[in-house]
Design brief:
Blueprint (H helix, E strand, L loop, with lengths): L9 E2 L3 H6 L3 E5 L2 E6 L3 H10 L2 E4 L4 E6 L3 H8 L12 E7 L5 E11 L2 E6 L4 H11 L4 E4 L4 E7 L3 H8 L12 E6 L2 E6 L8 E7 L3 H11 L6 E2 L2 H10 L34 H10 L3 E8 L10 E4 L2 E12 L4 E9 L8 E6 L2 E8 L11
Helix pairs in contact: 2-7
Length: 370
């Protein structure tokens, strides 16, 4: 299948800023996005040591409010939204009746009867149809193209955002959020991210995103701030074992085999996919998502077979060199009997088995502020 032409791709409000900064632009989820600026390893290390800015305005945002809002979110997602306080968010999944993952999502409780559901860019249209068809009585708004999103990640993120905010951000706990102004822009300030570092995700009006971006770059010069592309975003999340939809999880994946059972709360009551997921829980998953460490510098890439003594036991779904851990790492689905920590396996790379071992994840110790 051919790549979409540039003219077919959507652009974030920061597109011109990326091009001006010399970013290499690539298609991603139907959008034209920066994959790197100066280099993936350098950008990765900037986030771990200093602070980086990510344009994630391509993500989808849906709001639902009114008397039926909580019931709709409870039916559509696997986690327990009723447990959320106003000002709190949670990771969750949207599943099909057979337990397959339609998407992973972040659910924000904006008010007692108002929520925001943040979904993946490539799935926004699919997800919009899914939620509105399956919870039609709720009052939904698709605010994706009205909402810009900038992630500020790294050990100096709090200093940078705090310098520009009109409120104290030090008291915003992990997976909590508050409203305020950042660089004069009205912002939902969320203490969250996809890197394992402390940081914030800043939701702002679409047209105000360039002003916020430039203010962060200017104010953050003393902090060593830099724009970061999708390439480093991928290696950062891989070191944390954060799954990527379409790569590590999809409609063929059950949450339990992906290690996401902690985001499934059957005790809350019925939701789409509950019975199928619980049947897998009772029987035990036939395969599991594990972390692999390669014995050498070989890179285990998506789709490579995982083998033992010539027999295929599974498949790699994500793999790269991990700059923070200085070794080649991967995520792979393998038969449950071979998923134990310390199990020696191999990844077939261009016809040659390369030694690998199942290891504990995350590969990198998180530095988020609890």
């Amino acid at each position: 299948m051919s790549e979409p032409s540039t003219s077919d791709l959507k652009r974030t409000p920061l597109h011109d800023a990326h091009v001006k900064a010399g970013a290499r632009m690539v298609p991603f989820g139907g959008w034209q996005m920066p994959v790197q600026y100066t280099g993936i390893v350098e950008e990765h290390r900037t986030v771990r040591a200093k602070v980086g800015l990510f344009d994630v305005s391509h993500m989808g945002e849906f709001e639902v409010d009114g008397p039926g809002a909580l019931a709709a979110v409870q039916r559509l997602t696997t986690n327990d939204a009723a447990a959320l306080e106003v000002g709190q968010l949670q990771y969750s999944l949207v599943c099909a009746p057979d337990g397959g993952i339609v998407d992973d999502a972040t659910v924000y409780r904006l008010a007692a009867d108002r929520f925001m559901v943040v979904v993946n860019a490539s799935n926004t249209d699919i997800d919009w149809a899914w939620v509105t068809e399956r919870a039609p009585a709720a009052r939904w708004r698709n605010v994706s193209l009205a909402t810009g999103l900038v992630a500020v990640q790294g050990p100096r993120a709090e200093t940078l955002v705090g310098r520009l905010a009109d409120r104290d951000v030090t008291g915003i706990g992990y997976f909590r959020f508050a409203n305020g102004g950042v660089a004069g822009v009205p912002t939902l300030i969320s203490r969250s991210g996809y890197t394992g570092e402390d940081g914030f995700e800043l939701y702002v009006p679409w047209d105000d995103t360039p002003r916020l971006w430039q203010a962060l770059l200017t104010s953050g010069e003393a902090d060593g701030v830099a724009p970061i592309g999708l390439g480093a975003r991928d290696t950062l999340r891989l070191e944390m074992r954060y799954t990527l939809y379409g790569n590590d999880i999809d409609r063929t994946t059950n949450p339990l085999e992906a290690g996401l059972g902690w985001a499934v709360k059957p005790a809350k009551g019925d939701f789409i996919g509950r019975d199928a997921i619980e049947a897998v829980r009772a029987a035990g998953p036939r395969r599991r998502l594990v972390g692999l460490e390669m014995a050498d510098r070989s890179i285990a890439r998506h789709g490579y077979p995982v083998v033992e003594d010539g027999r295929t036991l599974g498949v790699v779904v994500s793999g790269s060199y991990g700059p923070s851990v200085d070794r080649s790492i991967a995520l792979a689905y393998v038969e449950s009997a071979h998923a134990g920590i310390g199990t020696d396996l191999a990844v077939e790379i261009r016809g040659t088995p390369r030694a690998a071992r199942v290891v504990r994840t995350p590969f990198y110790a998180p530095k988020v502020k609890r």
